[in-house]
Amino acid sequence: MRALGIDLGSKRIGIAVSDRSGTIASPLTVLQRTGSPRRDHEAIRTLAEEEEAELLVVGLPLNMNGSSGSQAQAAEKEAQALATVVGVPVIMFDERRTTVTADRALMEANIGARERRKYVDKVAAAVMLQTWLDSRGGRA
Fold first, then answer.
1. What tens digit of pLDDT does each residue of 84-139 get?
2. For labelling, which of 6, 49, 69, 131 has a CA lying 20 to 30 Å from the CA of 26?
3. Cα–Cα distance between 42 and 77 in angstroms, integer?
4. Which residues have C-beta within 8 Å of that of residue 102, sequence separation ≥ 6?
5. What's the CA gap between 6 and 94, in Å, rounded?
6. Backbone phi and psi for residue 57, each to the nearest 5 degrees, phi listed first
7. Which residues lie closer than 8 Å to 2 by C-beta, 6 or more apart?
8. What span, in angstroms and rounded, lies between the C-alpha atoms of 61 and 35?
9. Is the dihedral of CA 129, 131, 133, 136 positive or negative?
10. How open is the CA angle 11-13-17, to the nearest 5 degrees?
């Protein structure tokens, strides 16, 4: 099963995709927020169709202690709205520390700060999606 990983940010949305076997996640793209959640969700729907995704895994930004704060509640609300548009199941998955992990990996690849901003959201989405894939034993 092919899955898209979605990292919902306030300015950008990072998107990653799994291979068809549901084993490996790869960064796909970064969508700039348009100011219209509906347009943003339509763009995600289009990507899901193009990539033949059967599932969306949306990052859940829990607090470090595992509690659900305002950001997690906003992400859950947006994931519910997204589910009405995309036509495939939408699930939430813990995304704690994915941006830190992605930024560190990009720094280790000697990518400068300005360039990192272009990639960090889709790499964070890939980190989150890969963690979800691994937690399922490779069965998407």
1. 999 999 999 998 777 778 878 888 888 888 887 888 899 999 999 999 999 987 45
2. 69
3. 16
4. 119, 120, 121, 123, 124, 126, 127
5. 12
6. -110, 110
7. 17, 18, 19, 20, 22, 51, 52, 53, 54, 55, 140
8. 21
9. negative
10. 165
Q: What is the pTM of this model?
A: 0.89
Domains along the sequence of the chain with CATH:
3-135 (3.30.420.140)
In this structure, the strands spanning 25-32 and 12-18 are: antiparallel
- Residue 64 CB burial class (10 angstroms; 0-12, 13-18, ≥19): exposed
Tokens 């939408």 locate to 90
Alpha-carbon distance of 124 to 14, in angstroms, equals 7
